[in-house]
Structure formats: structure tokens, C-alpha cells
């Protein structure tokens, strides 16, 4: 089991961690484990640029509404900014900055030639017709045109946006530039330059991380029980792959609650959130549980794959799993992380576990630039290879420095970024 030797004081979550608070804390914490120039850390605390734009939209009734859009670009020392665009009422500049910092670490730990970006529009996507979403997206692409591009900043889908949104975004950008430029965004449908395997990639990488963790701690996947909170894109793909590889998935949940069968569920027959939203409780199973109870189940591997901030100071003592693998972004609060560390429960962090999404986005970008599509087999093979390399880099830090998996992942990421900054220098 990995653990840091120092005992830390555990504070309750004063409020659930915001993305920016978490990102800054993680940077400061990683900085204590790496010999990095203070100037580099200081530079990394700030985003390079935060673009705020007004996005006017003609509504179906002919009225005009103006929405606010953002694009935060954190750091591009290793390559173009990369990260999602979300449509959600609570999108704001600070959230975009925090999430863009997160993307910087995620790209670096996977050794992808990208830095972190994140953006979006403060809008409830459910309040928009398809036509309104298309018009809003096209105008947003135009407003951001001067700060994005395949060699500058490459957006992707996120909450409230999808492959179709990326198709409109790419079309609007290309029309204005006068040529088809598929590499301006990733997560597109394969027919216009999207990559096969992109959609299931975060779930696949989460499953690979779980498999490697089980092996690292000396267990056999065939004897491993798994609980997955959130049966959406990430959770369902991870659960199905782990089942294929021999694990027993005993519990899964959606927003309404969980089903539990100690002998194992047939997860391939349970519809995912995409196939049929909120259908988990309609399946036959011996027991139902709440979303709080699934987190406390006595299983070998717990995969929180729904939303952030679900493992908190209130329930971290009751997490009975031997290993936690973060499928969602930020499911464990800082305070909970400290408790799990003291209890010697390893947590495989989100920036490693669910990084399959951005990794296959990188493959998509390569395919777009080279105008050559890869087969699904090639995508999955290369993803496996990238994940194993990243796993090995992080594992080495865990073994050599006796760090937690999260600290080790940040150390790998920060070392790469700092080295690139030191080598390029500060101009002027
Ligand atoms: P999704 O919408 O496909 O599925 C989410 C699932 O979680 C659904 O089953 C939903 O019913 C359930 N859920 C929602 N709120 C819940 C709650 N409060 N408690 C319990 N269950 C709840 O979402 P997704 O794409 O699978 O994303 C899940 C998480 O993974 C998010 O944190 C997301 O940021 C992260 N993530 C997604 C991707 C991606 O490309 N899809 C990549 C990296 C990380």
C-alpha cells in the first residue's frame, strides 16, 4: 500500500472543493515533492489568458438573448491548449481556469504534447432547441476564432456538448477560415474526422487503471469485486470492460440509486445513461441501494464515475473498498483524500484514470493533421500503450518516493512541465 510517511491534520470540507481551489492546492502540494524553481510554480498559478466573449442568439420567437462564453488557456509550454467546452448555467471564469489547470496536469501526466484549456457558455442547454444550439455554437466558434486553432487551442466536448456540437463548431471555424480544418476540435463524429473509440476511451482508461491497480496490489481480476457509481459513458464502459476481463461487477448506480447483487450483475444488459437514461433501478437485482450506500460497499474496487465531490470528509471513513479508481473528475474532496491516505486506501487519481478521453483526442488530432483515419483496433492498442507508459511513470514515483498515487501523478506532470519551462526559458 502506498502512503506518505507524514501524518496530516484532517480538516472537514468547509465547502465542497471548487475546481480552482482544488487545482491550486494540487499545484502547491506537488511543488513540495519536486525540485522546481519558484518562478515556474508562480507562473503556473496563473492562466496565460482568459477570453470572455458575448454570444448573441436569436431565439425561436425572434427575440435576442446574449450569453457569456469563456475560454481559459492555462499553459502551452508543451503544446496547444486542449480541453472541453461546456454548456451549463454555472459556467464562469474561475471554474474554467481551475479546469484548464487540471487539463494541463492531465495532458502532462499522459505525456501528450498539449497544455490545458477549458471553456464554455453559461447557458442551460436543455432550454435551447437544436437550431438554437447550432446558432449559439456557430457564433461562439466565431467569437473564439482568434484564440483557437489546431496549433493553438483545440476544444472538445464536455458537459452539455457532444459530437454534433463539435461538428457545428468545426464547420463554422472552417467556413470562416476558407478551408476544412478538422483538427480545430476533437470529439467529432468519425465521418468528419472524429476518431473511432473516442467516446468509450475515458471508461476504457479507467478500466485499465483499475486492472493495473488490482495487479499492483497482488490480486487477481478474476477474484475482484467492483462497484461503479454512475452508469454513464465513463462508468458503463469501465464496468463492461472489467466484466469482460473477468472481474465481478456487483453494484452500479445512476442518479436515482444503485442495484446490488453480491454474485455479480450482468452489466452488458443494463442500458447506459446514453442508451436509456436512468434505467438502472428498473433492472432485476436482489437489492437496491442509495448512492451514498454504494460508496460504502465492501468491494475490492470502487469506481466513482458520476459527478465530483462524492467522497467527502463525512463518508471517507466508511469507504470499505480496498482501492478507489476515480472515473469522474474530482470525486474525492481534499479532506477525504487525506482520510483515505491515512487509512491506506489507495486512490488512483482522475488525471490518470480517466485520461483516455484526452489521449484519444490526441489521436484524433493526429489523424486530422495527417488526413488518415485509424482503425478502432489501432486506437485501442495505442491507448493501452499510452496508459501503461503513464501508469509505469506514476508507479515509479509511488515506489521510489512513497507517494500517494495522486501526488505521484502530479509529480510526473509537474516535472515534465517545469523541465519544458526551464529549457525554453522566460522571454524576454
Ligand atoms: P454521463 O452523463 O454519461 O453519465 C453520468 C451518470 O451519472 C449517469 O448514469 C447519471 O444518472 C449518474 N449521475 C448523475 N448525477 C449523479 C449523482 N448526483 N449521483 C449519482 N449518480 C449520478 O457522464 P459521463 O460522461 O460518464 O461523465 C461522468 C464523469 O466523468 C464526470 O465527472 C465527467 O466530468 C467525467 N469525465 C467524462 C469524460 C467523457 O469524455 N465522457 C472524460 C473524462 C471525465
From TrEMBL:
Q: Which GO terms describe its molecular function?
A: glutamate dehydrogenase (NAD+) activity
Q: Which residues form the Glutamate/phenylalanine/leucine/valine/L-tryptophan dehydrogenase C-terminal domain?
A: 195-425
Q: Where is the signal peptide?
A: none
Entry's transmembrane regions: none
- Cite the entry's keywords alphabetically: Oxidoreductase
Q: Which CDD domains match?
A: NAD_bind_1_Glu_DH
Q: Which GO terms describe its biological process?
A: L-glutamate catabolic process
Q: How does it assemble?
A: Homohexamer.
Name-wise, this protein is Glutamate dehydrogenase
Identify the species of origin: Haloterrigena gelatinilytica
